[in-house]
Amino acid sequence: xxxxxxxxxxxxxxxxxxxxxxxxxxxxxxxxxxxxxxxxxxxxxxxxxxxxxxxxxxxxxxxxxxxxxxxxxxxxxxxxxxxxxxxxxxxxxxxxxxxxxxxxxxxxxxxxxxxxxxxxxxxxxxxxxxxxxxxxxxxxxxxxxxxxxxxxxxxxxxxxxxxxxxxxxxxxxxxxxxxxxxxxxxxxxxxxxxxxxxxxxxxxxxxxxxxxxxxxxxxxxxxxxxxxxxxxxxxxxxxxxxxxxxxxxxxxxxxxxxxxxxxxxxxxxxxxxxxxxxxxxxxxxxxxxxxxxxxxxxxxxxxxxxxxxxxxxxxxxxxxxxxxxxxxxxxxxxxxxxxxxxxxxxxxxxxxxxxxxxxxxxxxxxxxxxxxxxxxxxxxxxxxxxxxxxxxxxxxxxxxxxxxxxxxxxxxxxxxxxxxxxxxxxxxxxxxxxxxxxxxxxxxxxxxxxxxxxxxxxxxxxxxxxxxxxxxxxxxxxxxxxxxxxxxxxxxxxxxxxxxxxxxxxxxxxxxxxxxxxxxxxxxxxxxxxxxx
Length: 533
What we know:
This protein has helices at residues 3-7, 10-21, 165-171, 187-200, 216-227, 230-245, 270-280, 283-298, 306-309, 324-341, 344-362, 391-408, 412-427, 462-475, 479-496, 505-512, 517-531, and strands spanning 43-51, 58-66, 78-81, 87-88, 90-97, 107-117, 123-130, 159-162, 376-378, 385-389, 440-441. It has 533 residues and is of the alpha+beta class. The protein has a five-stranded antiparallel sheet. It has a three-stranded antiparallel sheet with strand order 2-6-5. Strands 9-10-11 form a three-stranded antiparallel sheet. Strand 9 and strand 10 form a beta hairpin. It is globular. Mean pLDDT is 92; it is low at 1-26.
């Protein structure tokens, strides 16, 4: 054994890593999941209505009102009040229950329908009162498709209902969020997102499948939730129906995105359909979301099995493969499948994913010591990276892991997130701190292995890196880690904020499909610091 091989032996590498990390107990993590903000016993939600037809008369208004967990158990306890304080006769029904900890709970969203006169003004305001018995009830519901400007939904509803951002964020319709007007020291994120929005609209009806990669619909919906701005809602509404229309609903590959001829899991987004359903009550979105979730359930194995993937010298990889992003979208699909259906097979499959990912990180399938990454072979020849991780693909995986944790309280998730962020901090960032590497090669790769590589416009992925470091800071109570993660965040953000996230169509999507939660994470960290916790 030569000296170089000895120095990079797994035993010594493991020792060096243990010294760098300190004792395992330093990974002190939060043990409590987030709790929904408290709401008054009787809540009032002001809803802005915008008539969008050229000829408005008495119009049927139809929208979904999302609700926080543990708040409302009976749809009869919702009534609608007009500007004069008079109750409006309304039809209200539950769309879906919360399904936290494997059980059905309170109502997650209600569909509200009523008729209102818009002949003298295209703008009206109503108030939804919650936990107040409805006195004027309508028993019949109209299909949501009949309330739209066009049956397919691409032009949106005749009357658009815009909800306040505070209520949308508190409802957790897209998870815990902070309204943009309360971003405080993190408001630059919202200014940046708003600057990118205009350029993103050029792809709103793009028939190029690449324009939809990484879930454009959910990106716009999260912007709407955090701002309550009509422009984001209208874009998301159209995008949701575009994706629905271009989803195969029958046949062997039901659920896949038909603009891409090759069936591809990373283009299947039940999350987008689920959000749309909760905010509109459109049963077609629920049906599409369930078909997509079924596709995810049946078309990805979260286990990484290196023996099946290692090519012989000179050979290409076999067709079976594993990536962080496919696993992320597979997990996202089954998480939303559980929420939409309550079927035990989705609940069990979520746990299968969590178990596989925990083993992958803590007991790496390649037999080398753990380093905090989800590593794999990268490349199609015998000269491929042998201990590779993708930081931007792992961001796609971390997103549904947080969602899964919110539903289950699985105590392993904070540790997994912090271990990954430690790895990213130590090995994943270029020397100047301006970007992450495009491919990070593990310190436990083969002796003489290729070093990590940068490039590939990785500055366009800085927002995802900021998102992961923010989540890591939220997950740990170790001040030293929080300080390291914050320093990484601030340097990466200083570069990210100068980027054009429409320079390639999919960059907007990968940047904003999950990252808005970083404001929530950092504000929670700041509150802990102020409270001395």
